[in-house]
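User: Here's a chain of 515 residues. Predict its fold as tokens.
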Amino acid sequence: MLWPLLKIFLFIALVAAAAWGAGWLLEADGGVQIAVAGTEYTLGPLESVIALMVLLTVAWVLFKLVGFTVSFLRFAMGDKTAIDRFFDRRRERKGFDALAEGMMALASGEGKQAITKATKAEKLLRRPELTTLLTAQAAEQTGDKAMAETAYKKLLRNERTRFVGVRGLMKQQLDAGNTDTAMALAEKAFALRPSHGETQDVLLKLQAGASDWAGARKTLGAKLKHGALPRDVHKRRDAVLALSEAQEITDEDATVKMREKAIEANRLSPDLIPAAIMASDGYVAKGKPRNATRIIKKAWGVQPHPDLAAAFARIQPEESSAQRIKRFGALTMQHPDHAESRMLKAELQIAAEDYPAARKAIGDLAETNPTARALTIMAAIERGMGADDAVVKGWLARALTAPRGPQWVCTNCNRVHGEWQPVCEGCESFDTLYWKTPEESTASLPAGAEMLPLIVGQIEGPEEPEPVETEPVEVEAEIAEVPEAEPVEEPEEDAPETANADAPPLDYPAEKEAK
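Assistant: Prediction complete.
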């Protein structure tokens, strides 16, 4: 509100000053005399001021005309001028408009329209690092792989766009299934930009798939260096790579190196079960059972596993059953209520033929966590305690349809593997296998398989009540000895039913039937 009022006062003051100046010039004496070609011109003070203003205006116009003439002559001679800059700005504006329209068309899924706009923008802008990339992406969207490949190869010529071109070609080779070429391009892209996270992941996955464990460890170190991977995750995955490198060594001359790699993998990640097993076997081969025992106990403390128990048994293969039960107490005492510990104690007692102790060790695991292994152990216990075959077969039948329990499961695609592997066979992901219970761990059998335990239990059940089968025969013999046999000849077929009506119930004891 104050500024508009101030501008009004300023305008009035200027008008008043101009009026006062004009009045003062009119009243002033003197003037300016100008002689041109023998003619004198006398100008008063006001006329002199007006003439001076006109002269300045004409001089400015002449100066502009001269500048325009010089610029036109330079334009005609091929030099850069304001006219060129005007047309350049106009062309650049149109080019960026076409580029923006092409990007909008690409985002909208209109690949052909994006290619058209990219071609127009390239003619106007002459910026291939922008327009060629748009052309490549639009060609990929339309499915024209040849055009996209040509565009990416053009990007290789410029140092600023070389990484983008290599990455685009790498993704094309991955889509085509050419893993060898894709890995070579990934290594080139990694050399150009080591800090790029996606390139690191792709290269690590390809190297792991190609069993290039040494190269994968270098890539993993680069991920740690550039902050793309936490330190604890790096330690575990480095241990996985070291273990994989040890597993690849199969020559007899390389056993020492294999043991060293396995021990290194266990040192990097003590909870990695395959590394602990391989390191334990390595120490056993070197004659160091104490080190092997320490490794297995530490891994069992993190997660009990049947393969750890098998490796622990290999430390002292010649011991007796009683000695083994005592030595295995170092494992089972760590997690006494764990299902794996309870099944392990039961198996040790079965090996020692102490079946009551085995039943006590497994407890109610067959009801609380009825896995195939627990039910099979129960069948072995029943067999050892002299149970009927029907009871044993009933436990085994339940084991057929029971869940398999924990297995090596890929956390990415949920595929179950028979043994641990560094790379998933399904989705080819690296370090995604963990020992856990799969989501659907029940065996798939035909309809009605849930009746299998009942059916198996009845296989030998009817053999026990033998007196019941002989009883109708005895009654028929008594009826045959009756003197009045002629009236009974017609309903001969119904005679057994009549006799059974007088017979005792089928579930009576044999002693009552004899009475």
